[in-house]
Amino acid sequence: MLPISGTPVLTAAAMRAAEAAHGDLAALMERAGGGIAAAVHRLAAGAEVLILCGPGNNGGDGYVAARLLAEAGLPVRVAASAEPRTDLARAARVRWTGPVEPLAEARPAPVLVDALFGTGLTRPVAEADTLVRLAGAARLAIAVDLPSGVETDSGACLSPVPPFAVTLALGALKPAHLLHPAAGFCGAVRWIDLGLCLDADTHVMRRPRLARPKAEAHKYSRGMVAIVAGAMPGAAALAVTAAGRAGAGYVLLLGSATDRLPHAVVRRRWADGALDDARIGAVLVGPGLGRDETARGKLSAVLAAPHPLVVDGDALHLLDPAALAGRTAPAILTPHDGEFAALFGDLSGSRIDRARAAAASARAIVVLKGAATVIAGPDGRVVVSETGSPWLSTAGTGDVLAGTIAARLAGPTDAFAAACAGVWLHGEAARRAGPAFLADDLAAHLPQAIAQCL
């Protein structure tokens, strides 16, 4: 039972392929059941365990776990929704020598283990009401692989799903462990390594490793961020403060903004040639920019400049993604769901699929913000964040994120890594800020977030 940071994320089809490539599926089931049993034994603390087994291989894993827990001396009961329908599950059922109760008649137990259905479910669970009843009566509810009733790749709920305290991801994480609404029912997700050879282009976000400034560092080598202000100066001020707190060596504000800014921020008027400075490491455009002709003119000038770029907020409503095609410097787009739809239309597939397709078409890094923020690169790489906070659903937090990403982009780092680091730091700052914060409060917690990465 391992932490999930940095682990591969596989779709149902990719997981089936990885298992097939392994070859010895019986040994794989035994190892999965062993991992489940070890985790349940630790979490149950001697209490009675009820394991619910379905007809497929997820149920087979449950039978193996039941046998091993009983051998370890833990009181275990098994209830099944149907007889096993796969050879592996039948073999596992034969080796379980205890009774098997009909699921509909099962009495609750302090610890419930849901091994009804896992990866690959495509239909509602007929026994959903019984599962909800038994999980609600348990002191601790644990899901094997995925909570029964969720769709693996999209994170959709196909039938009512009870909340689980722990979900044990078998072999690899699946998109539903991270994508909502399913992720909201998984509780703490832990990974059981089955020794599979995993080739994945999607991973869970890990804490970034950030370098301390070298002894010979100066403000320009640390990274100069230029932020283009517009009609709503407060948004630019939030981004400016975040960029400074997130590690930029020099923050330049181009255009008007509120007077409530750190004295270290350099202010200049917006004018032709404002970006003609080779020392600029990244430009941020969009927070509070407005959507009038003046704003369009500023965005056009930014796109024509040769600097790495972060596009956020209003600029996303003005941007034609085709305008990024001729640029050689990297671009990072940071849309929420509404801005994403306006930019890229109605793309198909999961949230991960849509972000990956958008990044490929725009030839830019896309940070699709939300309950599970997805960072997708034009080369197909995807990282999904698990550090988001529901308290970030307040005005201005996106401006702070944009400034944080711009600061990381301006320094000597890969653009994809900069986007990931910015998202992680933003989430960690929110965790440290606690509940019911203003966006203005977030930037003050960025230095402590950075300290966790050095």
Beta-strand content:
15-25%
Provide the domain count: 2
* CATH class type of the largest domain: Alpha Beta
Strand order, sheet with most strands: 8-17-16-15-14-13-12-9-10-11
Number of strands: 17
Number of helices: 16
Helix content: 25-40%
CATH architecture label of the largest domain: 3-Layer(aba) Sandwich
Average pLDDT taken over every residue: 95
Unreliable segments of 5+ consecutive residues: none
State Rg: 25 Å
Tell me the major beta sheet.
10 strands, mixed
Intertermini distance: 27 Å
Question: CATH superfamily of the largest domain, called what?
Answer: Ribokinase
The CATH topology of the largest domain turns out to be UDP-N-acetylmuramoyl-L-alanine:D-glutamate ligase
Computed structural class: alpha/beta
Shape: elongated
